[in-house]
Design the sequence.
């Protein structure tokens, strides 16, 4: 048992209604039951079950550190139980992200995505969780660059002595299956030279030099498929906020730019990232547009505190749903306008992703079929 608190956000798509839309409430219910068993067994302190589009998200707090076998097993069992319900109802893609029938000690490499951070809880510990659907983890690279490296976004980098130190950024290279920690602002241009290539690099972690972990992103599928890019795993991110870390508003502001992210329909298109409430995260236009949700909460003595009464039972939480408000309507309208425009390209690039990134392709078959008719120019 550690003094430190671990927050684990583990997610998977284990089935949905009418295509890749949303999990059935019964699936959420059985996942919550599996989580509550984790609390009864003493492995978890608290939990919250939510979703983004068709992805189920399990937020857990505990004192067992990252990659803990028991904690990962609770998440695995919750997903298995939910998949079982989905199978009973013949829902679409039941068990989609569970790549094996049996748990092997860690969810990483088995299909689900995980973002975990261990830290000594500050006197007040505000946190944002971000959950995305229909895109890959490199989608968070641009907002991370703005939040932690751009003083025109985060004024705190300039005026808060604690933020003025800068941050260390851990970058994952998908192709060579390697990672590197780089220092911002000293190496800012070098960092951007890498992470601007969202087909090869993604940010995994951001570290404050005094406070420790500041942000973490789930990058699982990128890791297991090293050498080949298969990255539309609908990633999550956690960001600790305030008091030397970015203010909540600084962490949310980059999402007002509806950047183009790869994913969307068949994991093979570019669409504008659409910030919305959890309840609005069903993919309603061309299996999208790619969505991002943001929930705000406090970690209090290892428990989750939202706007529910203090000391509410584990699991019964009401985090703030930051993208629910009408303030985000102009961004959503712009995202729709851009997404409709991108669809105008049909199967042409840049409406679709590059050939290496396509999740479906007929190109090898077509090339084979016409092989004998190919002539030198
Ligand atoms: P902190 O001093 O806790 O970082 O608060 C700053 C703030 O919230 C300004 O928006
Ligand atoms: P998900 O990755 O959200 O399951 O979506 C897959 C897809 O093909 C959507 O068109
Ligand atoms: Mg799906
Ligand atoms: Mg999904």
Sequence:
């Amino acid at each position: 048992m550690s003094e430190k608190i671990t927050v684990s956000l583990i997610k998977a798509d284990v089935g949905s209604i009418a295509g890749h839309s949303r999990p059935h409430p019964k699936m959420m219910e059985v996942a919550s039951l599996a989580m509550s068993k984790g609390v009864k067994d003493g492995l978890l302190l608290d939990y919250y079950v939510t979703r983004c589009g068709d992805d189920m998200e399990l937020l857990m707090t505990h004192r067992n550190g990252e990659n803990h076998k028991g904690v990962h097993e609770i998440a695995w069992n919750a997903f298995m139980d939910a998949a079982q319900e989905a199978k009973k109802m013949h829902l679409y893609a039941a068990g989609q992200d569970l790549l094996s029938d049996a748990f092997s000690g860690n969810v990483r490499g088995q299909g689900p995505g995980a973002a975990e951070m261990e830290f000594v809880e500050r006197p007040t510990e505000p946190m944002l969780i971000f959950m995305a659907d229909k895109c890959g983890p490199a989608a968070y690279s641009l907002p991370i660059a703005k939040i932690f490296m751009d003083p025109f976004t985060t004024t705190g980098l300039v005026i808060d002595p604690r933020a003025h130190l800068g941050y260390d950024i851990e970058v994952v290279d998908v192709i060579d299956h390697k990672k590197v920690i780089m220092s911002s602002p000293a190496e800012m241009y070098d960092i951007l030279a890498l992470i601007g290539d969202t087909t090869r690099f993604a940010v995994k972690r951001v570290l404050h030099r005094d406070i420790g972990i500041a942000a973490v992103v789930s990058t699982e599928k990128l890791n297991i498929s090293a050498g080949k890019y298969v990255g539309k795993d609908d990633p999550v991110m956690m960001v600790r906020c305030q008091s030397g870390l970015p203010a909540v508003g600084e962490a949310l502001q980059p999402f007002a730019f509806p950047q183009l992210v790869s994913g969307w329909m068949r994991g093979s298109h570019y669409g504008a990232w659409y910030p919305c409430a959890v309840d609005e995260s069903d993919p309603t236009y061309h299996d999208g547009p790619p969505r991002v949700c943001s929930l705000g909460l406090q970690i209090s003595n290892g428990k989750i505190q939202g706007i529910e009464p203090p000391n509410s039972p584990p699991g019964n939480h009401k985090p703030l749903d930051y993208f629910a408000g009408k303030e985000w309507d102009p961004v959503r309208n712009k995202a729709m306008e851009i997404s409709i425009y991108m669809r105008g390209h049909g199967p042409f690039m840049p409406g679709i992703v590059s050939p290496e990134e396509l999740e479906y392709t007929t190109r090898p078959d077509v090339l084979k079929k016409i092989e004998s008719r190919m002539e030198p120019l």
Summary: The chain has one domain: 4-356. The longest helix spans residues 69-88.
